[in-house]
């Protein structure tokens, strides 16, 4: 249990009203403290305890089989994820960064080709572009959805543009329908970076829905432990509906070979371990349940903060189903002060991302920046992500929300 010291001038720690809900925590007799489970950005320990028998059994079966590389669970997980995403082909790999690199290699992108991407994203999205000696073209994002949109992308297209990488950031779905139309009309492949968006849906104007990562030419995801679908190490996957592209991806991920010792392409060595696949098979069965829990926590945060003049809650785009990999607020002032304040009250908070990719030292003088990037620059100075995971309880949520609100009262 985690101990939180209370206000010495009074017994009550929290008294937050949210839709007639009032939860007050009081001092334990003669202790001066009240007990609350430690707040984590992601609480994988408690999540594991709930599925421990299934996870332990799955791991033990792999150990008993001794098929640690390319064992049966890898094939089974790929097939089950194909069903979940409604795609024809899922190719597991070692991590999400590899997934992006292999996707670009499979499209035969050549040194000097341009790849349009957001600057407001995790560094890995653009790192692989430079690694392959391609040129990143940075575009601005919508200031409320945090994702790239067609008008900015259209401004960035040149004859050298050979791919577009939309990022479903924080679990928010990119507005895909106009982007798919643009990609189709210009014959530019879309590589969906779905590392933070797995389980999300895009709702087309006619009411049909498709899973994020399953609409573009290729979709890429990560199974890093903190992700909505996370393993207990590194892992990733690439998916596509094009069989020829899938065959090429499989070869590239396996040293460029289709048949052992016969190498047709320059490839890499990128595999999902059998133990990780076995864990992911168990957790895939809980993914929608996990997303529901995240959305319920987000609902609570929204209600607590939605009317505050200095706080903007995450927008839930009408065309998408937000899966809340992160719960990211925009605060109008003193973001860094808020981070320190929360830390003083033992509440972790993160800034994703404090430095845009186009301003990273590694990209100074590299690539092309389209426009003034005013939204990207604003967000980098004003976003803050609060704890978000499947195991948040109301006691924790109320304590977090009240502490944030108290910061703006002081």
What does this structure look like?
With 410 residues, this protein is an alpha+beta fold. The protein has two domains: 2-43 and 287-409, Aspartate Aminotransferase, domain 1, CATH 3.90.1150.10; 47-284, Type I PLP-dependent aspartate aminotransferase-like (Major domain) (Aspartate Aminotransferase, domain 2). It has helices at 44-65, 72-85, 96-106, 124-131, 150-156, 176-186, 243-253, 274-284, 287-305, 335-344, 374-382, 394-409; strands at 2-5, 16-18, 21-23, 33-36, 89-93, 114-118, 135-139, 161-164, 191-193, 201-203, 209-211, 218-222, 236-240, 257-259, 262-263, 311-312, 320-321, 327-331, 368-369, 383-386. The strands form seven sheets. A four-stranded mixed beta sheet has the order 5-13-12-9. Strands 8-6-7-19 form a four-stranded parallel beta sheet, sandwiched between helices. Strand 10 and strand 11 (209-211) form a beta hairpin. The longest helix has 22 residues, at 44-65.
Summarize this, please?
The protein has 410 residues and is an alpha+beta fold. It is 36% helix and 18% strand.
Q: Give the tally of structural domains.
A: 2
Q: What proportion of the residues is helical, as a percent range?
A: 25-40%
Q: What is the residue-averaged pLDDT?
A: 93
Uncertain runs: 1-33
What is the strand content? 15-25%
Please report the first level of CATH classification, the CATH class of the largest domain: Alpha Beta
Largest beta-sheet characterization: 4 strands, mixed
